[in-house]
TrEMBL record:
UniProt keyword list: Membrane, Transmembrane, Transmembrane helix
Coiled-coil spans in chain: none
Organism listed in the record: Pedobacter changchengzhani
Lineage summary: Bacteria, Pseudomonadati, Bacteroidota, Sphingobacteriia, Sphingobacteriales
Annotated InterPro entries: Mpo1-like
Keyword Transmembrane applies: yes
A cellular-component GO term for this protein: membrane
TM stretches of this protein: 32-54, 66-82, 118-138, 150-168
Pfam family for this entry, one: Mpo1-like
Protein name as catalogued: DUF962 domain-containing protein
Length: 171
């Protein structure tokens, strides 16, 4: 009598998280809304946190303005992404870099910490979250982060993993 040996590899933690996240993201309309709203939420959250006054750090000299509360948020998020997938971590660096570039451009136009800056980011944030909840209403399932807050961080790399699959990059 021969026993069957299971030779399949166990799922990586990132794939387990994607599978769980996918459970409430199967409706095409909800997925489309996520492709629009998740990046807007990340952008607007970074923009909002960027506006919070940060203590002046004399030792940083002329680079003092390049470190802020958003830098700390970015560092923690990127570390988490790195633990899940170095490839998705690398892609998120580019996404966050683009968002940071746009935030700095907005800052140059309306001013850091101005009421206009807060209004821009808060408006985007609120509208994008309304979109997310509409998408989940259409889906008929609650958002994943209501069960586990870490799914707030999974959404952006969940979208990136589809891009990786489409172009044949192992994540």
């Amino acid at each position: 009598m021969s026993k069957k040996v299971n030779t399949s590899e166990p799922k990586r933690p990132v794939d387990v998280l994607f599978d769980k996240y996918q459970e409430s993201h199967n409706n095409q309309t909800n997925e489309l809304i996520h492709w629009i709203c998740v990046p807007l939420i990340v952008f607007s959250l970074l923009g909002l946190v960027w506006q919070i006054p940060f203590p002046h750090l004399d030792f940083m000299g002329k680079y003092n303005g390049f470190f802020n509360w958003a830098s700390i948020l970015i560092a923690f998020a990127l570390y988490y992404y790195f633990t899940l997938s170095p490839v998705l971590f690398f892609l998120m660096i580019w996404v966050i870099g683009l968002f940071s570039f746009l935030i700095v451009k907005i800052e140059l136009i309306v001013g850091l910490g101005s009421s206009t800056a807060y209004l821009i980011y808060a408006s985007i944030f609120v509208v994008a979250w309304i979109g997310q909840f509409i998408g989940h209403k259409i889906e008929g399932k609650k958002p994943s982060f209501l069960d586990d807050v870490k799914f707030l961080l999974i959404g952006p790399i969940w979208l990136l993993h589809f891009i990786c699959k489409k172009v044949g990059v192992k994540y």
